[in-house]
Every structure is written in structure tokens, then in C-alpha cells.
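Ticket #231: bound-state structure for protoporphyrin IX containing FE.
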Amino acid sequence: MSTATPKTTVRKEKLLHPLPLRIMHWVNALAIFIMIGSGWRIYNDDVIFGWLHFPDALVIGKWAQYGLQWHFFGMWILVINGLCYLTYGIVTGRFRHKLLPISPRDVIATVRDALHFRLSHDDLTVYNAVQKTLYLGVILVGILIVITGLCLWKPIQFSELAGLFGSFQIIRLIHFLCMSAIVGFVLVHVSLALLVPQSLLAMLTGGPTVGDVLAVEAAAPVPESPTETTP
Ligand code: HEM
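RESOLUTION: The complex was predicted; output attached.
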């Protein structure tokens, strides 16, 4: 007897930004704040560009040594939280569903709309192409800043990794450029969050519920047709 197994689609309602994601997002924001403020303190002690010093009011740590201690403290939070976020994004399929795919044509169209002030953010559940690019970009820059940070911190232990970048000064420069990219991202990101307050509220409360196809389950087998039974 041949059997057909009717499939049942199981849909589970969940919040747009589930609690673990919100916790990781805000822990990350705190870690980035500590890393940037303390990083600027360390930078001021041995500048890369003679014309650039960060004002004392914006740095964390009274002296470079305190800045370093803050930097290492923030580093552990950033790395542990970042690994949790990457694992969560991959395992739950969030990265695949929310940040991919990105097509250059969509990015150009979204930028054009933004320049004509036609960009709407009515549907919080879907990221537009520019958001996807910025989020994926900042995740990749986050990974690069951690890798270069490790090379600066332990150049002997990570000598093979450091060798890929060239000299110590080049690693410092890449680390600095990653920091600049993250600062640029945060300025745009926070401005947009303030311009669209419902997106900020959603990142605090979880936002609207969204349907999520969880699984396709096989129900009990039933005969397909009486003519197909074996003699
Ligand atoms: C106080 C500072 C921050 C505020 C107010 C803020 C606000 C928000 C809001 C409202 C969203 C949801 C966006 C939407 O629905 O359109 C979001 C998502 C996101 N934010 Fe932030 N954010 C902050 C800091 C940061 C920092 C420092 C980073 C990384 C360097 C970051 C990375 C991200 C990423 C990657 C997402 C997408 C998360 C996902 O859907 O998986 N944010 N943020």
C-alpha cells in the first residue's frame, strides 16, 4: 500500500526582536561605547595623525593605563556577546531571513529613494537594502576590528595572523579605520532610530509579532487511493 503523508505547516508567532536579540543588541551598544571611549584615550597617548587628538571630555580613563584597562574590560563583553549574536543569527536563521539577500540594484534604488526623501519605514518587519548592507557591513567591520585588536594586543602569539596585514603600524591603521567606520555607522544608525521612534520602541519592547514558519510536520500516513493497493 502506498501512503501519502500530508504536511502540516507549523507557524509560531514570535516578536520581531526576540528578547535574546534585544539583550545582545543593548549589551553590544554598551560595549561599543566603552571600547570607543577607552580606545580614544589610548590613541591620544600615541597618535597616528598629528592633527587628531580626542577631547578629554569624550574619552574614558584618566590616563592611558586606565584607558587600557577599560578597553580590555569592554573587549571581553564585546567578544563574548558578539560570538553569542553571531551564533544566534546563524542558528535561528535570522541573518538569512532578515539580512539576506542583498542585490546591488535594490541598494541603488533604496539610496535613490532616500535621497528623494521617499524612503518609508512603515513596515518595521522588513529591512530595506541599505539597512541590510549597513547591518551586514558593521558585523563584518566588527569582526575585523576584533581580529586586528588581537594582533595589536598579542603580536607574538598571533604573529601569523598579524603577518597577513604587514607591519604593526598597518594593523593600527586598519584598527583605527574600523573604529571610524563604526562611529560613522552609529551616528547614522542612532539618527535613524530617533527619526523613526517606533523602530527604537520595537528594539526596547520586542515590537510586533511576526509569523515564523517553524517546521513542516508529517501527519499520520493515509492511503493515497484504493487503486494503488498491492494485490
Ligand atoms: C544607543 C545606540 C543604539 C541605538 C539607539 C540603536 C537602535 C537600534 C534599533 C532601533 C534597531 C532596529 C532597527 C530597525 O528596526 O529598523 C537596531 C538594530 C541593529 N543595531 Fe542598533 N542601536 C544602537 C547601537 C548599535 C551599535 C553600537 C551597533 C553596532 C556597532 C548596532 C547594530 C545594530 C544591528 C546589527 C542591528 C540589526 C539587528 C538584527 O536585526 O539582527 N546598534 N538598533
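RESOLUTION NOTES: Residues 213-220, 225-231 have pLDDT under 50 and may be disordered.
TICKET STATUS: resolved
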